[in-house]
Amino acid sequence: MADVGATTAEKPKKPKQGRSPAYPGLNIQQALVKAKALYDAEGKYAAPMPSAFAAWGYGAKSSGGRETRAALKYFGIITVEGDNDSGKVKLTEKALRVLLDEREDQSEKQALIRELALTPAIHKLLVDKFPEGIKSDATVEHFLVFDEGYNKSAAGEVVTEFKATADFAGLYKPVTIVDIKSGQSQEVVIPDPAKEPAKVGDLVQVEINGAFQLEKPKRVRAIQDYDGKPWVFVDDHEAGVPMEQVTVIEQGSGAGAKQLEVPRLALEPPPGDWREERLLDEAGEEIFVRYKGEPSKERYEFIRDYLDFKVKRMK
């Protein structure tokens, strides 16, 4: 028997520090309700941002409108043309096919909803990590905090949203189609984007021996043949990677435009029982308000007064 006591004790894993990665603030069912509201108000044409916010029940400067816009974009339900203030919002072709499908046979519609539900990178990751479904919220939250860099509050929100999305989209259920005439049904194989060859514009990971090699997914900037095999080149890396080692995390538009990320420096979280609230500014960027203790009217009034003071000093 091995001498367990002689082995070096493994240090407990610590949570990753810094801001939580992005995730949808709505589940897929809520997002489709907002998409239907946009279609009812503006049709299939691109709508000015204030009109889209109004269709969703928010004012032009509302954080709720920005949260909705971000969630629908994560799911691939809308595209945003131009900047976030003066730009326009348009429903995608896939979203329109879901909203306007009133046929008795709903198999195609359900398959499209599954595709939309798997569009956010975090959803694809959770399905791959937990292929049998979510058995324990605590297990998934632990994975999100210690392996993916979410804070505890955000991890709980991700689990709640993902479970609702998975239930509505049937991510853990076999897909069947029904022949209306015969009444017979058969299973449908839904294409897995991760198993499709990567294309320029896709968000990908490099996987070797079952382990991801990149700190976070990168966008494909070029694909070239070398020695009879396709090699993939991603942002911020000069060396190519064989296509068979590339896993598609999120399918891109195919435009191939390089998307730069703003450099960030993680902050050490303060000790103690701290709370964190997540907001989205007008440009769609996340803002976190962190304070110690329970939320209260007095605390929010203090934050408001402090921000008013900072604004006055900037004039």
Q: How many separate helices?
A: 9
Give the CA-CA distance, first to last residue: 73 Å
CATH architecture of one domain: Roll
- The tally of beta strands, per DSSP, is 13
Give me the Rg, rounded: 22 Å
Shape: globular
Low-confidence stretches: 1-11, 177-181, 255-266
Helix content: 25-40%
* Rounded average pLDDT: 81
Q: Any idea of the CATH class of one domain?
A: Mainly Beta
Report the CATH topology name of one domain: SH3 type barrels
Largest β-sheet summary = 6 strands, antiparallel
Structural class: alpha+beta
Order of helices and strands: HEHHEEHHHHHEEEEEEEEEEH
Share of β-strand residues: 15-25%
Structure in words:
The protein has 315 residues and is of the alpha+beta class. The chain has a domain at 197-250: SH3 type barrels, CATH 2.30.30. Helices cover 34% and strands 19% of the residues. The chain is built from nine helices and 13 strands. It has helices at residues 28-42, 49-55, 63-74, 93-99, 107-117, 121-129, 137-146, 152-169, 297-314, and strands at 47-48, 78-81, 88-91, 176-178, 185-187, 203-208, 211-212, 218-226, 229-234, 241-242, 246-250, 274-280, 286-292. The strands form four sheets. Strands 6, 7, 8, 9, 10 and 11 form a six-stranded antiparallel beta sheet that branches. A hairpin with a 6-residue loop joins strand 4 and strand 5 (185-187). The longest helix has 18 residues, at 152-169. The radius of gyration is 22 Å and the shape is globular. The termini are far apart. The relative contact order is 0.11.
